C-alpha cells in the first residue's frame, strides 16, 4: 500500500510536501511508511483505555484487536524494533494519514515527522530535532515562530533529590505530565489530613510505610478474596495507588521546605542560559544534587546555538510540559507568533518507549510531529496577508 498520493490529494498541492520530505532526506532520515492497520494493544497500553473512544477498531479472525493507526510514532518505532537495525542509531521520517475521532474535525488527517532511535549523544540529538523542526516550518513559508521548551527530566531530578515519599513522587510527576494544576495539588498535599476514621482504616494502617509493590500485593490479595478484579472501573493497581496515597497522607503533610523549593523551581523561566543560572542557584541554596540534569540542559543549549538557533529568542520554562506521560526529558513546541494554544510542531525525548514496546535493552529515542493542518492554515493566512 502506498501513501505517495496522500499529500497531493489532501492539500491540493504537493509543493510543501516535496520541500518537507526533501529537508528530512537531506538530514539523513529515511522515509518510513508503516502499515495503516496496527495492533491496538500498544496504543491502549501506552495511552490507557481512555484512548479507546478515539480509535477506529476492528478484530481479526484470530481475535486480535486492530486499529487504524492514530499516530505514526509507535508504528515507526515498532517497524524499527522488528528490523535488523534495532538497537543501532537510525533515523526515520514520515508523511501520511492517521485516523482518530476528533469532535467536530475530520477523523482522517495528515501527520509528518521524524523519529531518531539509538543515539547516545542525547543533547546533540535533542538540538538536531529542534533545528529540523524549525526547518519544517519554512516548507510552509513560516519563518517567524515562537520556540517553547522544557525538560521533564529536571522536574523528576528535583523530586528525586527532595527524597519525598514514593507516592508523593508519583502523584506530582503525574500532575506535571498531564498538565493538572500542580499548584492546587501541592497546596492540597501541604494540608494535614483530618484525624477522623474511615471504613478502610485497617487497610491504611497495614500499608503505613509500605512501598508500591507491597501495596499492590496486599490489594491483589484482598480483591482475590472478594472475587473481583476491579471496583467502579478502577483496576487493582489504581486502587493500590489510591490506598497507598491515603496512607502516606495520613502520616503527615508534604514538608513546607519541599513545597517552597518546588514552587521556586516551577517559577524559573526565560531564555535557556538564564534558566541554567537560576537552576544552579536553586540547587546550591537548597543543597540538592541536580548537577547531571542541569549539565544535560546546558549541553543541549550549546548544541542548539551551534546549529544557529537564537538562544535569546528561545523560551525555556521548568513548568513547561506537553501533557503526556510519554516524555522523559526534552520537550518543545513551535507556535505561530501570537498563537498560544495550537502548536505547529511538537516533540521531545521519550527514552522509555522502546522497552515498553518490547525491547530487552533501553534505546534512546527523540522525535517530533508536524501538525500539517495548522501549518497549512497559518501558511495560507501569511500568504494571504502578504497579497
Key terms for this structure?
14 strands; globular; three-stranded antiparallel β-sheet; 387 residues; nine-stranded mixed β-sheet; alpha+beta; disordered N terminus; BirA Bifunctional Protein, domain 2
Can you tell me the number of structural domains? Answer: 3
What general outline do the C-alpha atoms trace?
globular
What is the name of the CATH superfamily of the largest domain?
A: Bira Bifunctional Protein, Domain 2
Task: Give the rounded overall mean pLDDT.
Answer: 82
User: Whole-Å distance between the termini?
Assistant: 40 Å
Number of E strands: 14
How would you spell out the order of helices and strands? HHEEHEEHEEHEHHHHHEEHHEHHEEEHEH
Estimate what percentage of residues fall within beta strands: 15-25%
- Strand arrangement in the largest pleated sheet: 1-5-6-14-13-12-7-11-10
CATH topology of the largest domain: BirA Bifunctional Protein, domain 2
Spatial extent as radius of gyration: 23 Å
Would you identify the regions where 5 or more consecutive residues have pLDDT less than 50? 1-13, 192-209
Structural class: alpha+beta
Quaternary structure annotation:
single chain
Give a written overview of the molecule.
With 387 residues, the chain is of the alpha+beta class. It has helices at residues 6-11, 15-26, 41-47, 73-81, 122-138, 152-161, 166-177, 182-190, 201-207, 212-226, 236-250, 256-266, 272-286, 291-306, 353-356, 372-386; strands at residues 30-31, 37-39, 57-59, 65-68, 90-99, 108-117, 145-151, 230-231, 234-235, 269-270, 314-317, 330-336, 343-349, 365-371. It has 3 domains: 12-144 and 337-386, Bira Bifunctional Protein, Domain 2 (BirA Bifunctional Protein, domain 2); 146-193 and 255-327, no CATH class; 195-252. The protein is built from 16 helices and 14 strands. A 9-stranded mixed beta sheet has the order 1-5-6-14-13-12-7-11-10, with helices on both faces. Strands 2-4-3 form a 3-stranded antiparallel beta sheet. The radius of gyration is 23 Å and the shape is globular. It starts with 5 loop residues before the first helix and ends with a helix. Keywords: Amino-acid biosynthesis, Glycosyltransferase, Histidine biosynthesis, Transferase.
